Amino acid sequence: MYRVVGTLALSVVVPLHNEEENVPRLFPALEEACGPMGVDYEGIFVDDGSTDGTWEALQRLQPGSSRLVCARLGRNSGQTPAMAAGFELSRGDVVVTLDGDLQNDPKDIPELVQQCAEGSDLVCGWRRDRQDKLWTRKIPSKCANWLIRKVTGVHIHDYGCSLKAFRRGLVDSMRLYSDMHRFLPFVAQRAGARISERVVRHHARRYGVTKYGLGRTWKVLFDLVSLKMLVHYFRRPLLWFALLALFPLLLGTAVLWAALAGGTSGTVLFGSGVVLVSMGFFVLLLGLLSDLALRGEWREFEQLLVQDAGGPA
Amino acid sequence: MSAPELSVVVPVSKRCDGLAGILALLHEGLKHSGRSYEVVLVVDGDLHDRLAQAQALAEVDERIRVLSFARQFGEGAALRAGLMASRAPILLTHPAYFQVQPAVLGELLQAIDDGADVAFASRSSERDSAFNRLQRWVFNFFLRRALWVRFRDISSGVRALKREALEDVAVHGPFHRFLPVLAAMKGLTVREVPAALHPQAGGARVYRPSVYVKRFLDLVNVFFLARFTYKPLRFFGLVGGLIFGVGLLICLYLTALKVFGGEAIGDRPLLLLGVLLVAVGFQTLAIGLLGELITFAHAAKHKPYTIREVVRREPERAPEASSPVDEQPESAPK
To answer: Of A11, A293, B79, B137, which has the highest C-beta tally within 10 A?
Structure first.
């Protein structure tokens, strides 16, 4: 069983961006799902700089069994920062995140929380029967999931699902920025979290418009590369850059050798060797520069790792 | 003196049309606003006559405060110092020269009252000199292309903003020129207020070529900061990836010639070009990764969000094990 660390049993964090129509439907569904659990819980609604009436809709909510926390961000900051804001305000032992578009079903919350109580630090929802467009959403999502699984080595099915349950200690030890939510399981795993998943319901969007599109694919790709590097080499950036430099250095040396020893080819081959070798050196120097840029910062990261996901907040 | 309702910040730099005239314009423009205000004059460095002027004005008008720099740091720095020293919840900036009609000030404040975080005067170009119109058009054209914002004229120094917005648009370096754009990119509500030119504004201004170069580089800089601060690899990766890709294609083509055609490629300049492109692309990618490391290291210090307002409400039926919580709305933590 998990220890009581926060002051409440459960926090449900919902980032919202222009979900005016969904708010009045989402909240009763949430209370209906969580009320019967018989625990002290709070709903945290984070209005991420909406330009429609989302904030007004939040003000009209009447809490029945939940404690209600409505927060408004200073500007539109994106889903991950909005989630981080919700985490900052949350006090529950378990924190569940949920999309504000009603595609996730709050009915799944009790099961996720239960699974968390059974010993997982992070329970990821898996939308096995996804109710979205096939070509623009489901297939790209399948590819992205496969790629993320290969690169990060965390074996869950659905990285994009917002419905997740976190244990308090994990929430406090994660550092979130930009579009990191897709890689949360990876970050959590590196922090030593025990991760499990559970099939959750998924509904088609009824109101409002989706905020995703195919245009973000290349971003995910680069984010993935950077995260892979960050997680593995943050404390030894020189090693990373040295690995990068290895290939051009070796190839360049071989080309130089061929040009000098062979004697048959002219200046062009020699020049190519020079370019490759100098590029290798350049990348090595970048590694040293990164040591300089990160001087002292590793303490912060070390602290993150030491804070075991199951440990006290 | 208690804090005023409005602070007017006037950076006094080399270009100045007489402080007395500017103050008269401010007083006229704010006469009907019904707000108490202070005027912060920031004299940028070694401009002794201006400092004396400003101090003389402050002698007779207690609403005026004067700051001065020990040496010249530029209009942007003066603006920033003035904003930092100001005390009111609403801030108005005005350059030390005439730009727009005094009535515009009231309209800007009205826009702020109507919910905008930042409002700025956008000068109509009818009565301006043709050369000014041209250079402004070119500048704003590039701006629109690079940053995908649809403002007509952002470079006027007459702007109003809420104090909360200040932190988001920290106008460091020379970027004060881009304040409305930076604000819009941060998701703040930005209102463009069409403004008639002041009768004394509008003589053709020709700058030194270096000024134009600097302005262009500023634009590139703002573009980068606004788009890729949190994810530098997205920028460097795209640029580097393209260069790398082209280089790789060239190299593959040559390899194919060598392997299948049996041609000698060791003397072809194309080989050098291919290798060079691969190298440059690779280096660009590596720099992007360095950028990611730096960003990540700083992520702990800079929260990517600000909480403006929190409202907590209690349940109707309190469960048995309730815990104490504060009821009143909290103000945003800094």
So the answer is: A11
ipTM of the complex: 0.77
Per residue in A241-263, pLDDT (tens digit) is 999 899 889 999 998 888 888 76
CA distance A8 to chain B (A): 8
The residues, ordered by sequence, that sit 6+ positions from A292 with a Cβ below 8 Å of its Cβ are: none
Residue B304 covered by a domain: no
Q: What is the span of the domain harbouring residue B132? A: 6-228
C-alpha A94/C-alpha A85 separation (Å) is 16
- Cβ of B319 within 8 Å of Cβ of A71? The answer is no
Q: Taking each helix axis as running N to C, give the angle between helix A217-233 and helix B232-256, from 0 to 180 degrees, rounded to the nearest 10.
A: 100
The pLDDT of residue B105 is above 70: yes
Q: How confident is the model at residue B330, as a pLDDT? A: 45
* B319 contact residues in A (CB cutoff 8 A): 38-40, 65
Under 8 Å between Cβ of A74 and B308: yes
* Strands B90-93 and A195-199, bridge-based pairing: unpaired
| pLDDT digits 0-9 by tens, B310-320 | 888 887 655 44
The CA distance from B319 to A301, in Å, is 39
Q: Which is higher by pLDDT, A133 or A81? A: A81
- Eight-class DSSP state of B122: E
End-to-end CA distance of chain B: 26
Same domain, A40 and A123: yes
Same domain, B10 and B99: yes
Joined together, the tokens standing for residue A78 give 């994106």
Read off the pLDDT of residues B134-181 as tens digits, 9 standing for 90 and up.
877 887 777 777 666 677 777 788 999 988 888 777 666 667 778 888
B222 within some domain: yes
